[in-house]
Design goal:
The protein is mainly alpha-helical. It has one domain. It contains 8 helices and no strands. The termini are far apart.
Length: 187
C-alpha cells in the first residue's frame, strides 16, 4: 500500500512540475512496467520479435508524453495495460501483414486454459473478442485486459474498481468463458 500511495503522490507532484518527482516516478514505474512486460512476454511464443524492454520503452514514452491527469497508481497502470494491448496488437498485425499468403505462423498471446483442450489464440483474434466483450460488458473486458496485458493481480483490480476480489474473480471467470466460446466459434 505504501508503494501505491508513493506512486500516486509522485504522479501528482510530477504533474505539478516537480523534476525530482518525475525522476523518482520514472524509476519506480519503469521497474514495475518491465516486471509486468516480462511476465507477459514469457507467455509469448519462443522467438517473438518484440522484447519486453522494447514494449516497456514504447509504453513508458507514450505514457510520459501524453498530457493527462493521472488520478492514482491504478489509473496509470490501467492506461499502461491499454497501451500494451494496442502495441501488441499492432505488432501482430504487422507480422501477419508481412507474412500474408506465405503460411504465416500465428503470434500467440498466452497459454491459458479455460476448459480442457483450449489452446492459445492469436493476439488479433483475442483483441477482436475483447472488443466484442466490451460492447456487452465493459468492466469484464477491462478486467481481462488488465490481467492479460498488464499482469495486474485480482487484488489490484479489485482495489481499482472498489469491489471485492471475489467479484473480480467471478467477472474474470465469466469473461474467460465468454472469450473461450467466441474464440472457439471463430476457429
Amino acid at each position: 500500500m505504501k508503494n501505491d500511495t508513493n506512486i500516486t503522490e509522485l504522479l501528482h507532484a510530477w504533474q505539478s512540475g516537480s523534476e525530482q518527482a518525475f525522476s523518482d516516478l520514472s524509476e519506480q514505474v519503469y521497474t514495475e512496467l518491465h516486471r509486468r512486460a516480462q511476465k507477459h512476454m514469457s507467455q509469448e511464443r519462443a522467438g517473438h520479435t518484440l522484447q519486453a524492454t522494447a514494449l516497456v520503452n514504447e509504453v513508458f514514452v507514450d505514457l510520459l508524453s501524453i498530457q493527462l491527469d493521472f488520478s492514482d497508481r491504478a489509473h496509470f497502470f490501467r492506461l499502461a495495460s491499454t497501451m500494451m494491448r494496442r502495441i501488441l496488437v499492432d505488432h501482430a498485425r504487422a507480422q501477419c501483414a508481412a507474412k500474408r499468403g506465405a503460411g504465416a505462423r500465428h503470434v500467440t498471446l498466452l497459454d491459458w486454459k479455460v476448459a480442457s483442450g483450449f489452446q492459445s489464440h492469436d493476439v488479433i483474434e483475442l483483441d477482436a473478442a475483447l472488443s466484442a466483450l466490451a460492447k456487452l460488458d465493459k468492466r469484464k473486458a477491462e478486467i481481462l485486459e488488465l490481467q492479460f496485458f498488464a499482469g495486474s493481480s485480482v487484488q489490484d483490480i479489485a482495489q481499482f474498481y472498489e469491489v471485492s476480489a471475489r467479484t473480480i474473480e467471478r467477472d474474470g471467470q465469466f469473461g474467460k468463458a465468454w472469450l473461450h466460446r467466441e474464440l472457439s466459434m471463430a476457429s
